[in-house]
Amino acid sequence: MKEIYAILGGNFDPIHYGHILSAEKLAKEISIKKIILLPNQNPPHRSKTKTPLKHKLKMMEYAIKNNNLFEISLLETKKKIFYTVETLKKIRSKIGFAKSLCFIIGEDNLNNLNFWKNWKEILLYVHLLILPRNGIKKYDNELKKWVSLHTIKNKIHLHKKSFGYIFFSSIPSIKISSTQIRKNFADGKSSRKFIPIEVEKYIFLKNLY
């Protein structure tokens, strides 16, 4: 049986309990040994991030302090434009093929996967772990066939093969928005229930939002 490592990418502006708790529940669901948090600077499909990278990284460090499940990778912070398939290829090259490697995305991102660069190549390096999102089922026909072809129902297969499958998690969606958290701070409202207290203190200290 293979150990499972997983990758969770995002803007993390700021990191919040939606990121952390979803990842922890997913780790329990399929026995993930390590989750690699992959912060980025400027995703090709989004506008430039508002918060300097050094502050996002510090907030992430506070959020996962003393939690051995997580580690942070700076791979997507080294250049302004990056493509997921290239990043996954580099991570796979680093850890080798003895381990099972999974890339965690929401079902909303899966719905748009066919717009990503070389999207079909992703499964050459990783499994896809899909977090449920309400009302997201409008796949492009080509994408729908591809998803159907590679989807597995039994999570045990993720421990038997290093890459190539799609698995839909059963954990409930946690509705927390980084955008709303930033707005709360800008409006002088509390976000204590959405983020770790050390992250909140750092945001106030640096007057980030």
UniProtKB/TrEMBL annotation:
GO molecular function, one term: ATP binding
Broad class of enzyme this protein falls into: transferase
Database matches in Gene3D superfamilies: HUPs
Reactions performed catalytically: nicotinate beta-D-ribonucleotide + ATP + H(+) = deamido-NAD(+) + diphosphate
Domain Cytidyltransferase-like: 7-183
An annotated GO BP: NAD+ biosynthetic process
Annotated InterPro entries: Cyt_trans-like, NadD/NMNAT, Rossmann-like_a/b/a_fold
SUPFAM superfamilies: Nucleotidylyl transferase
UniProt-listed Enzyme Commission number(s): 2.7.7.18
Pathway(s) where this gene product acts: Cofactor biosynthesis; NAD(+) biosynthesis; deamido-NAD(+) from nicotinate D-ribonucleotide: step 1/1
Lineage top rank: taxon: Bacteria
Keywords, comma-separated and alphabetical: ATP-binding, NAD, Nucleotide-binding, Nucleotidyltransferase, Pyridine nucleotide biosynthesis, Transferase
General function of this protein: Catalyzes the reversible adenylation of nicotinate mononucleotide (NaMN) to nicotinic acid adenine dinucleotide (NaAD).
UniProt cross-references to HAMAP family, sorted A to Z: NaMN_adenylyltr (MF_00244)
Similarity section: Belongs to the NadD family.
Name this polypeptide is given: Probable nicotinate-nucleotide adenylyltransferase
Organism: Buchnera aphidicola (Aphis craccivora)
